[in-house]
Each structure stands twice: as structure tokens, then as C-alpha cells.
């Protein structure tokens, strides 16, 4: 049943009591846009004003809602929420196209309802009390799904296995998968609730292959909205492509060329590369500040290029130090990865930090769940990673431990479901 057919709000969370307030803060230079608008609601007071004695207001973080339906799926250009759970699924043996289509409809309907703050059927009540907390659920398909469903002829050309890269130490059991579900939210309990609900709905059709959990800054944790910091302490996301740039959509979403052949269903979709990248933080901590800044080519405190200015000042890649050497080193991460040195290769990086305890040697099992969205990985992640793996000053401090390439269909309208043009067509 779709959300529009059964718009039952969570107790104490009626639409009537939703009051528009300020917009959510953008992260990584992204604007909140329509999908990032926040709404505030009062749960316990009678008139919805939130001002009654003893009343409790649902804070803007909890009440903020991101629409599920739209031309593109939410969770791609949405400013990064505080939490993510990535869950990859494999189809159960014998699951055919009809079963996969039914699952995508169940998942889409439920994700839309959860994103509005409504409770799913047969709810375990974990989601009581909280608002949607900017929940987004984003669905994507791996190459193996097309083969298993007899849809090899409609597999888009960009969905080839990623080539091996020098230095890869990939764990197959935490890589790939027929389906990827990215759940993002500002509240961990809301995230668990969504993940658990979707997993229950998959029974009989798909089973979990792997799961990873990541985190970013919580809204309000910094004095003003700012680009996130990663676990190495760097400001990370500064030079992401900006949604307002004229070529943004062409670089990030699949256009006519990428939707050629049997892949017309993909127009408006996007490819996502997942890399679980462990940071060798004990080694990194052994570098002094100047050396750390040389590795990236940016200052740690402000995120500004080492050639001067502020965070958003373009790096001066031609500048030389007093001794004549390049100010942004030949192997500095921003020089090796920048679009201007990679034939314009562009991707929207929307990664999350992870920390899964400590390894037997005492080093943190921590790093970056790197997630990069692009119109075609052959013109985005692949050439850039080929270069980084060979000549990036950051490489000695990171290990790529898991990998996946998936294609996210375009968004769906109310009454439709994600992937419908492929699975029904
Ligand atoms: C293949 C693509 C990339 C991988 C893998 C990658 C890993 C990685 N990056 C950082 C930290 C930073 N990256 C920064 C910039 C940056 N990184 C990539 C690509 C990959 N990074 C690009 C395309 C860019 C933008 C370059 C530019 O145009 O200037 C930065 C600087 C700030 C920013 O612009 O975001 C940092 C810091 C880590 C720690 C990491 C692996 C763990
Ligand atoms: Fe990077």
C-alpha cells in the first residue's frame, strides 16, 4: 500500500501540527534545497505552539523531513545527515523479476512513509517518539542483479566491474551485492528502525550480504554550519561539485548518452561507488602538522589551500615555494584528484566516517565509507582512483578494504516505485 493511500502519521505527529521553521544547514558546500527544508512540531502541547507549561517540543532536527518522491532519489544531493547505514542484499535463489519488482514497491512505499514520519504496518515501535529526522532511503542495483533477473540486455554500459587498483586489499564478503540500500538520518534509532523495517520486508526475496555503519557531524554540533571533518581531522568535501553549477546535473546524473541502448530506464539516475577505506591513523598521527598539510595540499584548521586564502579559495597549482618546489606538491591529494588534472573527471563525494573498534595490534579499525556519485564511473571514479593508487601522498596512510559499484535509478513519483521502468518495462 502506498503512503498516499494510507497517510497515517505517527502518534502525536499529525501534519496539522507541523510548523514550518528554518531550513537545514548545508554540508560540504551543498545547499539544502527543497529536500532539506526543516519543519518543527510540538508533540505534547495542546495547541501545537510548543509554549505550554511542561510541553515538549520536537526539535527541528527530529521534525526535519526530506521527501522520498521526486525526479532524483533523495540521499544523493541531500546534505549529509549525521548517520548512515549501508546494507547490501543478494537476491534469494529463485527470486525472479516479479518478486524483485514487488520488493522494490514494498520498499519504496515504506521508505516514503518513514520519510514523512509515518509508521509502517506491523511496526515494532522502535520508531515511536522521534520525527523523521531527515531520513532518506536510497536504492541502487549492482551488476549481478541484472544477470540474475535475465536483464543483462538492459544493464547500463557503465555498470562494469571496477578494475583492480594497485594496493587494493578487498574483502569480497563486504563488497558488491545485488542491491544497495543507503539509509541516512540525523537519529541513530530512526536509522535502525528503517533498516530493520526494510530488512523484514525483504524476507523471501533478498537477504543481507553485508552492512556498514557510518557517522558525520550532528546538526548543531558546530557554532555554524561547516564542511565536515574526517577522522584524519581534515575538512573534507570542500571542492565537491556544487548543485548550482551549470554542469552539475550532467556530471552527476545519467543523461541521454548514459541511458542509450536498453538503459533508457536509467535517465536521471546516478552511479555510486562505495569504498571502505581504513585510515592508518597511528601512522598518520606520527606526521607533524606541516607534513600532514603537504599530503593533502590544504591546511587542517581552515581547509584552505596551502597556497593561501580561505576554504573556498581556489588552489594555486602553479605557485612555488621559496626553494622553487611546487607549493602544492606533485603528489598532494588535491593535485592528483582534481578534475583539472583528470580531464574533468568529477564525482560528488558524500562519504561517512566509521569506527568499528580496535584491531588486535591496537590500531583503530576506522576510516571513511567513501561514497561517490557520478553520471558515469568510467569518466569519474575509475580514472581518478587509477591515478591516486599510483601517486597519491595519502596512499601510504589508507587501505581500501571493500568496494562496490551500483546504479541508482531515478526517483519515483507518488504511486510509483524506484526501478519501475526497469522491472515493469
Ligand atoms: C577516487 C577518488 C577519491 C578517493 C578514493 C579519495 C579518498 C580520500 N580523500 C580524503 C580526503 C580529502 N579529499 C579531498 C579532496 C578530493 N578527493 C577526491 C577524490 C578522492 N578522495 C577529489 C576529487 C577531491 C577534490 C579535489 C579538488 O578538486 O580539489 C580533500 C580536500 C578537501 C575537499 O575538496 O574535499 C580531503 C581532505 C581521504 C581522507 C580519503 C580516504 C580515506
Ligand atoms: Fe579525497
UniProtKB/TrEMBL annotation:
Record text on cofactor binding: Binds 1 heme b (iron(II)-protoporphyrin IX) group non-covalently per subunit.
EC number: 1.11.1.-
InterPro entries in the record: Dimeric_a/b-barrel (IPR011008), Dyp_perox_C (IPR048328), Dyp_perox_N (IPR048327), Dyp_peroxidase (IPR006314), EfeB/EfeN (IPR006313), TAT_signal (IPR006311)
Cofactor: heme b
SUPFAM superfamilies membership: Dimeric alpha+beta barrel
Example of a GO cellular component annotation carried by this entry: cell envelope
Superkingdom as given in the UniProt entry: Bacteria
Keywords associated with the record: Heme, Iron, Lyase, Metal-binding, Oxidoreductase, Peroxidase, Signal
Pfam families to which the protein is assigned, alphabetical: Dyp_perox_C, Dyp_perox_N
PROSITE patterns according to UniProt: DYP_PEROXIDASE, TAT
Molecular functions per Gene Ontology: ferrochelatase activity; heme binding; metal ion binding; peroxidase activity
Catalysed transformations (reactions): heme b + 2 H(+) = protoporphyrin IX + Fe(2+)
Subcellular location: Cell envelope
Family (UniProt): Belongs to the DyP-type peroxidase family.
Name of this chain's protein: Deferrochelatase
Amino acid at each position: 500500500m502506498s503512503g498516499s493511500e494510507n497517510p497515517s502519521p505517527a502518534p502525536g505527529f499529525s501534519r496539522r501540527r507541523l510548523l514550518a521553521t528554518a531550513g537545514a544547514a548545508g554540508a560540504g558546500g551543498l545547499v539544502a534545497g527543497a529536500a532539506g527544508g526543516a519543519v518543527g512540531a510540538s508533540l505534547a502541547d495542546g495547541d501545537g505552539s510548543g509554549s505550554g507549561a511542561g510541553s515538549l517540543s520536537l526539535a527541528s532536527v527530529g521534525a526535519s523531513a526530506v521527501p522520498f518522491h521526486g525526479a532524483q532519489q533523495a540521499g544523493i544531493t541531500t546534505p549529509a545527515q549525521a548517520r548512515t547505514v549501508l546494507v547490501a542484499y543478494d537476491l534469494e535463489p529463485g527470486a525472479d523479476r516479479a518478486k524483485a519488482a514487488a520488493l522494490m514497491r514494498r520498499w519504496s512505499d515504506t521508505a516514503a512513509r518513514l520519510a514523512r514520519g509515518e509508521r509502517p504496518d506491523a511496526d515494532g515501535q522502535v520508531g515511536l517518539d522521534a520525527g523523521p529526522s531527515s531520513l532518506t532511503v536510497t536504492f541502487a542495483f549492482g551488476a549481478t542483479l541484472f544477470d540474475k533477473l535475465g536483464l543483462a540486455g538492459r544493464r547500463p554500459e557503465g555498470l562494469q566491474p571496477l578494475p583492480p587498483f594497485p594496493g587494493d586489499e578487498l574483502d569480497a564478503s563486504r563488497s558488491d551485492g545485488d542491491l544497495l540500500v543507503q539509509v541516512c538520518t540525523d537519529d541513530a534509532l530512526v536509522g535502525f528502525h528503517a533498516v530493520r523495517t526494510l530488512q523484514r520486508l525483504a524476507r523471501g526475496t533478498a537477504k543481507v550480504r553485508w552492512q556498514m555503519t557510518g557517522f558525520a557531524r550532528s546538526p548543531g554540533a558546530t557554532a555554524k554550519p561547516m564542511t565536515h571533518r574526517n577522522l584524519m581531522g581534515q575538512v573534507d568535501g570542500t571542492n565537491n561539485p556544487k548543485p548550482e553549477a551549470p554542469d552539475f546535473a550532467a556530471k552527476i546524473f545519467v543523461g541521454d548518452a548514459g541511458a542509450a541502448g536498453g538503459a533508457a530506464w536509467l535517465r536521471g539516475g546516478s552511479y555510486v561507488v562505495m569504498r571502505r577505506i581504513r585510515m592508518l591513523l597511528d601512522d598518520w598521527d606520527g606526521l607533524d602538522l606541516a607534513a600532514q598539510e603537504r599530503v593533502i595540499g590544504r591546511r587542517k584548521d581552515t581547509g584552505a589551500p596551502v597556497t593561501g586564502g580561505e576554504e573556498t579559495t581556489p588552489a594555486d597549482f602553479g605557485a612555488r615555494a621559496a626553494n622553487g618546489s611546487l607549493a602544492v606538491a606533485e603528489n598532494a591529494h588535491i593535485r592528483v584528484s582534481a578534475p583539472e588534472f583528470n580531464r574533468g573527471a568529477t564525482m560528488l563525494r558524500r562519504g561517512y566516517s566509521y569506527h568499528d573498534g580496535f584491531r588486535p595490534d591496537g590500531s583503530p579499525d576506522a576510516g571513511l565509507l567513501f561514497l561517490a556519485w557520478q553520471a558515469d564511473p568510467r569518466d569519474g571514479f575509475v580514472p581518478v582512483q587509477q591515478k591516486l593508487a599510483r601517486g597519491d601522498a595519502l596512499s601510504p596512510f589508507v587501505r581500501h578494504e571493500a568496494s562496490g559499484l551500483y546504479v541508482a535509478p531515478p526517483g519515483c513519483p507518488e504511486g510509483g516505485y524506484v526501478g519501475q521502468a526497469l522491472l515493469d518495462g
